[in-house]
C-alpha cells in the first residue's frame, strides 16, 4: 500500500485497486495519445466506442454472459432500477414476488408497489435480517412475473450462497447484486435480470449495470419514462443519451484487472480467505466482538459486528482511523461496526484490521 493511502472499509463508494487508479491517473490528461482526457471525450467518438465496447466484452468474458442477454450501462443507481424493473417486466395488474432479506430488498419491494402488485414472499425483518430463508419457506405465487432477491445485503451482511428457483412456468429470477457483483462466478442463465450499482465492487459511483435477457425487452408500461425503458438503451448500445463516460471507463479497467488476476474463480478464492480471517477473529474473541448473522449466510463482502461494550465503539473507530483504517462505522440504521471487504481490499488490509482488533480487545477486555 502506498505510504499515503489508508485502508478504506467503506460500503460504497468503496476502495478501488491501486493499479487501476494509477492507470487512470496516467491516462487522465491524454487518453491513449489522442490529446484529450477520457472526461472530455465525445461519447459518439470512435475512441469512447472502443472503451465501452471493451468494457462490455470483458464483463461478458468474466461472467460468461450468454449471447441472448443485453449488457446495459445506465445511470441512477440500483435505486432507480427498483422502479425500472416493474415498469419493464410487468403490467400494473401483474403480481411479482419479493424476498426481503434486508434494507435494500425492502426498499425495492416498497417501490414496486407503485407500479404493480408485489407479494411479500418472505421477510427476515422479525429476526432483524440475520438469515436467508430456506427456499421452501418462500411463499411464491406461480403466476408472478418475477421473483426478486437482493443477493447481498450491504447493511445487514447476509448473502445468498445459492439462488432460489421460481416455481412459475414464466416467472424469472431478478437479483440486485450491487454489493457482490463480480465477487464470484454466477450462472447468468438462471436469471432474467441482474442489476448492480458499480460503486461497491467494480468502479466509482455514477454507472449502474443491467444484464437482461433479450426476450424480456420491449414490453414496458406506457407510462415508463424513456430513460427507464431498457429496450431504448439496448437498441442504442447504452448511448441513447450521454452516458457516465468516466465511470464506464473505470469499470472497464477493473474488469480487465479481474481477468488479469485469473477471473472470478480466483477472485472468489481470495474473498473467501479474507472473510474467513475476519470472521474467525470475531468468533474467537470470546464475545468481545459479535456478528449477528447466521454463519451459513454471512456475507463475504460486508461484515457487520458489534462490541460487547458498546460504549467503546467510538474509541474503536477513532483508534482504527489513527492507524490508517477508515470507514468502519456501521450503517446509521443498525449501528455497530461494518467492514466492507470488497474485491479491491487487499489481504494486507484484513491482516492489519484483525491485528488491531486483537490489540484493542487485549487493552479493554
Automatic annotation (TrEMBL):
<dbReference type="InterPro" id="IPR015421">
    <property type="entry name" value="PyrdxlP-dep_Trfase_major"/>
</dbReference>
<dbReference type="InterPro" id="IPR020578">
    <property type="entry name" value="Aminotrans_V_PyrdxlP_BS"/>
</dbReference>
<comment type="pathway">
    <text>Amino-acid biosynthesis; L-serine biosynthesis; L-serine from 3-phospho-D-glycerate: step 2/3.</text>
</comment>
<keyword id="KW-0808">Transferase</keyword>
<comment type="similarity">
    <text>Belongs to the class-V pyridoxal-phosphate-dependent aminotransferase family. SerC subfamily.</text>
</comment>
<dbReference type="InterPro" id="IPR022278">
    <property type="entry name" value="Pser_aminoTfrase"/>
</dbReference>
<keyword id="KW-0663">Pyridoxal phosphate</keyword>
<keyword id="KW-0028">Amino-acid biosynthesis</keyword>
<dbReference type="InterPro" id="IPR015424">
    <property type="entry name" value="PyrdxlP-dep_Trfase"/>
</dbReference>
<dbReference type="InterPro" id="IPR000192">
    <property type="entry name" value="Aminotrans_V_dom"/>
</dbReference>
<dbReference type="Pfam" id="PF00266">
    <property type="entry name" value="Aminotran_5"/>
</dbReference>
<dbReference type="GO" id="GO:0004648">
    <property type="term" value="F:O-phospho-L-serine:2-oxoglutarate aminotransferase activity"/>
</dbReference>
<dbReference type="GO" id="GO:0006564">
    <property type="term" value="P:L-serine biosynthetic process"/>
</dbReference>
<dbReference type="GO" id="GO:0009570">
    <property type="term" value="C:chloroplast stroma"/>
</dbReference>
<keyword id="KW-0718">Serine biosynthesis</keyword>
<dbReference type="InterPro" id="IPR015422">
    <property type="entry name" value="PyrdxlP-dep_Trfase_small"/>
</dbReference>
<keyword id="KW-0032">Aminotransferase</keyword>
<feature type="domain" description="Aminotransferase class V">
    <location>
        <begin position="6"/>
        <end position="353"/>
    </location>
</feature>
<dbReference type="GO" id="GO:0030170">
    <property type="term" value="F:pyridoxal phosphate binding"/>
</dbReference>
<protein>
    <recommendedName>
        <fullName>Phosphoserine aminotransferase</fullName>
        <ecNumber>2.6.1.52</ecNumber>
    </recommendedName>
</protein>
Amino acid at each position: 500500500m502506498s505510504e499515503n493511502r489508508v485502508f478504506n472499509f467503506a460500503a460504497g463508494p468503496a476502495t478501488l485497486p491501486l493499479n487501476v487508479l494509477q492507470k487512470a491517473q496516467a491516462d487522465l490528461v491524454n487518453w491513449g495519445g489522442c490529446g484529450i482526457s477520457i472526461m472530455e471525450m465525445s461519447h459518439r467518438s470512435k475512441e469512447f466506442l472502443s472503451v465501452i465496447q471493451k468494457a462490455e466484452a470483458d464483463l461478458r468474458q468474466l461472467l460468461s454472459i450468454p449471447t441472448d442477454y443485453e449488457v446495459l450501462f445506465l445511470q441512477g443507481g440500483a435505486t432507480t432500477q427498483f422502479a425500472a424493473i416493474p415498469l419493464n417486466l410487468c403490467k400494473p395488474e401483474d403480481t411479482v414476488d419479493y424476498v426481503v432479506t434486508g434494507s435494500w430488498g425492502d426498499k425495492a419491494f416498497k417501490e414496486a408497489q407503485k407500479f404493480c402488485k408485489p407479494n411479500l414472499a418472505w421477510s427476515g425483518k422479525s429476526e432483524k435480517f440475520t438469515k436467508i430463508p430456506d427456499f421452501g419457506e418462500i411463499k411464491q405465487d406461480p403466476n408472478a412475473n418475477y421473483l426478486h432477491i437482493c443477493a447481498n445485503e450491504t447493511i445487514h451482511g447476509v448473502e445468498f450462497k445459492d439462488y432460489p428457483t421460481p416455481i412459475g412456468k414464466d416467472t424469472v429470477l431478478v437479483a440486485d447484486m450491487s454489493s457482490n457483483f463480480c465477487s464470484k462466478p454466477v450462472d447468468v442463465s438462471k436469471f432474467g435480470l441482474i442489476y448492480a450499482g458499480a460503486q461497491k465492487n467494480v468502479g466509482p459511483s455514477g454507472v449502474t449495470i443491467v444484464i437482461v435477457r433479450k426476450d424480456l425487452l420491449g414490453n414496458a408500461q406506457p407510462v415508463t419514462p424513456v430513460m427507464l425503458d431498457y429496450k431504448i438503451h439496448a437498441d442504442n448500445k447504452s448511448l441513447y443519451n450521454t452516458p457516465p463516460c468516466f465511470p464506464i471507463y473505470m469499470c472497464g479497467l477493473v474488469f480487465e484487472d479481474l481477468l488479469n488476476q485469473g477471473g472470478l474463480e480466483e477472485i472468489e478464492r481470495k474473498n473467501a480467505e479474507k472473510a474467513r480471517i475476519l470472521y474467525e477473529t470475531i468468533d474467537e474473541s470470546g464475545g468481545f466482538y459479535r456478528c449477528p448473522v447466521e454463519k451459513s449466510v454471512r456475507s463475504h463482502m460486508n461484515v457487520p459486528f458489534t462490541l460487547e461494550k458498546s460504549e467503546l465503539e467510538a474509541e474503536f473507530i477513532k483508534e482504527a482511523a489513527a492507524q490508517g483504517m477508515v470507514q468502519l462505522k456501521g450503517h446509521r440504521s443498525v449501528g455497530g461496526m461494518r467492514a466492507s471487504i470488497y474485491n479491491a481490499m487487499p489481504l494486507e488490509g484484513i491482516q492489519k484490521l484483525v491485528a488491531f482488533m486483537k490489540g484493542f480487545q487485549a487493552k479493554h477486555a
